[in-house]
Amino acid sequence: MRLMPSTRGWAAQPRAACAAVGAALLVAVATACSPTYTPPPPDPRVALDVGQPNAHASAAHPVDPRAPTPTSVPLVSPATPTPAPGDMLSEPDAVARVLPAVLRIVADRSIGTGVIVSADGVAITAAHVVGDHKSVKAQLQDGREFTATVEWADQWVDVARLKLPARGLPVAPLGDPARLRLGEPLMAVGYALDLPGGPSVTRGVFSAHRRGKREVDYIQTDTALNPGNSGGPLISLRGEVIGINSWLLREREGVTAREVNFAVSGTELRPLLARNG
Predict the structure, then answer these.
(1) Active site (annotated) includes residue 128
(2) Cα–Cα distance measured from residue 155 to residue 170, given in angstroms and rounded to the nearest whole number
(3) Which run of H or E residues covers position 133?
(4) How many CB atoms lie within 10 A of CB 118?
(5) Which residue would you say has higher pLDDT here, 73 or 190?
(6) Choosing from 61, 77, 110, 128, which is the catalytic residue?
């Protein structure tokens, strides 16, 4: 026998009593569903627990009290006009514009990536790739190999400047990160896992401008980075280097992170390249 709810008791109640009961129930439900805690707004800064993007690199950089003074970058990229026709390249063409200048960097057992930024042999990579070495091996896409001098390595920013003993080299142009729009495609080129057969290309989007605890400007992207990508170029569809791949966030406050990767912004690279030592 199926049990059915009885309505006889409710039918016998005056309408006023029913209305009072209904109002009381609504108040109770509203009170129970009201939030008791309002979380603070999210902190837009990145916790700079520098990971180990290269298997043979140092797990963290020493704290240097001489922090550089970087150019400020807004946390959210301002709206920019839609690029003019011809301003953007196809992904293969953007990679082809930068690829000849990409270097395979070998510092003892550490394998990383670099990129040539001047035809007279100036190149940049990540400081944690070169470590404390005074020279490294640099291999071009055409197979040529050079012993490059490490002119300086800024462990604070994680950028090193190299000098190859050659002229007339292919060059990757530096771009302006301020032109990036949220969601714009980006690509990383580098020797991920040092797989045989040349560099790898991965793609993602521009996620945000970030400034970390070290007062260094970074470009956040979900473009996949792996050991060996360190020091390689993060490029836009204009075929320009807008960052140097540096580190990734694996965990923050006990929460596992996914595809939260960072490149030293081009706003840091220009003043650094002007340094003599």
Answers:
(1) yes
(2) 27
(3) none
(4) 16
(5) 190
(6) 128
Cα–chain center distance at 147: 29
Identity of the amino acid at 87: D
Instruction: Name all domains of the chain by residue range, CATH numbers in brackets.
Output: 91-273 (2.40.10.120)
212's tokens: 């970390």
Q: Give me the chain's average pLDDT, please.
A: 76
**158 catalytic per annotation:** yes
Per-residue pLDDT of 179-206, as tens digits, reads 999 999 999 999 999 999 899 999 999 9
| Catalytic option among 207, 230, 236, 246 | 230
In tens, the pLDDT along 12-59 reads 444 444 444 444 443 343 333 334 433 333 333 332 222 233 333 333
Q: In which band, very low, low, confident or very high, does the pLDDT at 248 lie, cut at 50, 70 and 90?
A: confident
Q: Residue 224 and residue 15: Cα distance in Å, rounded? A: 66
Cβ(242)–Cβ(234) under 8 Å? Answer: yes
- Active-site pick, 61, 110, 154, 158: 158
**In sequence order, what are the residues at sequence separation of 6 or more whose Cβ sits closer than 8 angstroms to the Cβ of residue 53?**
126, 128, 225, 226, 227, 229, 230, 245, 246, 247, 248
